[in-house]
Amino acid sequence: MIKTTVLNYTEMEQNNMESRNEQWRIDLRNAKTPKERTAIPRVEMPQLDPKYRITCNEEVNQGISAEQAVVEASRCLDCANPQCVTGCPVNINIPKFIKNIERGEFGEAAAALKETSSLPAVCGRVCPQEKQCESRCIHTKMGHPAVAIGYLERFAADWQRDNLPQEVPAMAPANGIKVAVIGSGPSGLSFAGDMAKKGFSVTVFEALHEIGGVLKYGIPEFRLPNHIVDYEIEGLRKMGVEFVKDCLVGKTISYEDLHEMGFKGVFVGSGAGFPRFMNIPGENLNGIMSSNEYLTRINLMEAGRGGDTPVLRGKTIAVIGGGNTAMDSTRTALRMGTERVILIYRRSEEEMPARREEVGHAKEEGVEFKTLHNPIEYIGDDKGRVIAMRVQKMELGEPDASGRRSPVPIEGAIEEIPVDLVIVAVGVSPNQLVPRSIPGLDISKRNTIVVNEETMQSSVGDLYAGGDIVRGGATVILAMGDGRRAALNMAEALLAK
Ligand SMILES: Cc1cc2nc3c(=O)[nH]c(=O)nc-3n(C[C@H](O)[C@H](O)[C@H](O)COP(=O)(O)OP(=O)(O)OC[C@H]3O[C@@H](n4cnc5c(N)ncnc54)[C@H](O)[C@@H]3O)c2cc1C
Ligand code: SF4
User: Fold this and answer.
1) What is the pLDDT of residue 364?
2) 393 burial level (CB within 10 Å; 0-12, 13-18, 19+)
3) What is the pLDDT, as a whole number, of residue 87?
4) CB of 150 closer than 6 A to ligand 1?
5) Fold identical between 9-163 and 275-427?
6) Which of 45, 91, 137, 180 could form a Cys-Cys staple with 146, CB 3.0–4.6 A?
């Protein structure tokens, strides 16, 4: 198992205890009884009306107000042994930032978040809190809804951005050592930020014409507006990080070129952007494409929104899969004016890996859910364009290796559904261009880069890696944590030379 934290456990506990024993925290804790705190209802996220929001790309979740944030923060019991922290993949000191919100010190709350997370405004919007920190909140054990940690994280980060000047953090003096980053997703950005803080000269090479990785080309603006990501990138620029766009490492320049350019260490955060298909008959018909292609055309190339890039449209679109990517594709299809959007997933809704909130939003917006169905064949017209799909009805059997009940076909239960566009969102794999171009690099059977679990160092001494290229498809917060841990260890190794 690859480690997720940057701090070790003792440091984390010490950090929690020190801040918890400050006088203002003790006074705040004593200001209300636990009974009073648990009696407060959980805040509701203000949202755009579903009928309106599918006509535009505006952010659906509008964010909670300062008044709502203070009340929500007062629900937190400031536990002595806060289990929420153990549920956070990078062990953010959650009660510390929440209690700062309760006392009205929103800037301090944002600073507490930044101690551990380099992208709190992003994580507050897209992290699956219901499976992480919030699932461990003491409230859930007492039969109450968890403290809305994600909403509060977003509030503090947004408040800081909207109210305080963007400050350059304390930086070590420049040490003259150059390091390169391949890929500008969350792993590459957090690595770049930490290395710049430690005094290194950092250059990020990105294949696309936009910086941000999946945060820009995958996750749609109605969930994560681009200006939130751009603000973080601007912060890195102010710290001296340089960005080279339209540069595909492995084609435009090679790994050897990076050495010739004087880079002493390389971090690979090239993600997992290689789409998977199901290899069923008819899958190469026109009108069947990967979610990656569909979302990139629309989000990055602005297809259908004034950009030159074309995108196929349909009256009835089927999206295959049950993850965040599938959900983003359905909701994007609605915003492209599609009359009927059907989500087809082979297990039941309970097993869907997508965030609960996304599933709820997709339903509110009118996506039809056809769970326990699996495509087995696509049918085309005489011009080779898809016109229908055959789906197999499934039932749930025994749990498989993932712990979820596996889907089993019900013999003879096959249905034909007319469709004119199909988006396949059944998973991704790491792109092999970078790994295969580096001699001696250890690559796993799943095509991920093999790293030392503690340090993120690969079999090639000066090369570290993290995020989806190592994990094969994970989450923003895990990618970010990997980048930070790689920075800690690469910096130590380079400075010891
Ligand atoms: C549609 C979608 C929705 C998602 N929703 C969520 C969510 O709600 N919550 C969540 O936590 N996670 C979500 N994820 C997963 C999350 O976005 C990823 O786990 C995360 O972005 C991985 O970060 P990364 O830094 O490893 O790579 P990426 O974000 O994939 O970035 C990799 C970057 O490297 C660049 N690159 C690749 N090869 C090269 C090369 N040879 N040279 C130069 N640059 C290169 C790519 O162009 C890309 O910009 C979602 C993913 C998708 C696709
Ligand atoms: S577990 Fe819940 S109540 Fe306890 S500190 Fe964490 S957020 Fe607060």
Assistant:
1) 98
2) middle
3) 93
4) no
5) no
6) 137
Ligand 1 within 6 A of 476 CB? yes
Please tell me the predicted confidence (pLDDT) of residue 4.
Answer: 56
Contact 79, 140 (CB under 8 A): no
Q: Locate the domains of the chain by residue range.
A: 9-163, 178-273+430-496, 275-427
Query: What is the model's pLDDT at position 7?
Result: 53
CATH topology of domain 9-163: Fumarate Reductase Iron-sulfur Protein; Chain B, domain 2 (1.10.1060)
Ligand 1 centroid – CA 25 distance (Å)? 38
Per-residue model confidence (pLDDT) at position 289:
97
DSSP codes of every residue in 260-310: HTTEEEEEE-----EE-----TTTTSBTEEEHHHHHIIIIIT-TTTT-S--
- What the block records as the tokens of 32 is 């209300």
Return the residue whose CA atom lies nearest to atom 2 of ligand 2: 137
Residue nearest atom 8 in ligand 2 by C-alpha distance: 76
Would you state the structure tokens that stand for residue 459, as one six-digit string? 């079999």
Contacts of 193 (CB under 8 A, 6+ apart): 118, 235, 236, 239, 241
What global pTM score does this model have?
A: 0.94
Query: Could you tell me if 372 and 346 are in contact, meaning their C-beta atoms sit under 8 angstroms apart?
Result: yes
Nearest atom, ligand 2, residue 37 CA: 3
> 75 alpha carbon to ligand 2 midpoint, in Å?
9
Considering the domain delimited by 275-427, tell me its CATH architecture: 3-Layer(bba) Sandwich (3.50)
Instruction: Please list the ranges in the chain whose pLDDT falls under 50.
Output: none
User: Is the CB of residue 92 below 6 angstroms from any atom belonging to ligand 2?
Assistant: no
196 lines ligand 2 (CB under 6 A): no
Residue found by looking up tokens 């070590």 in the block: 172
- pLDDT for 169 equals 87
Q: Please give the pLDDT value at position 8.
A: 55
Integer Cα distance of 119 and 105 in angstroms: 20
Q: Does residue 455 have its Cβ closer than 6 Å to ligand 2?
A: no
- Which atom of ligand 2 is least distant from the CA of 85? 6
> Can you give the pLDDT at residue 18?
80
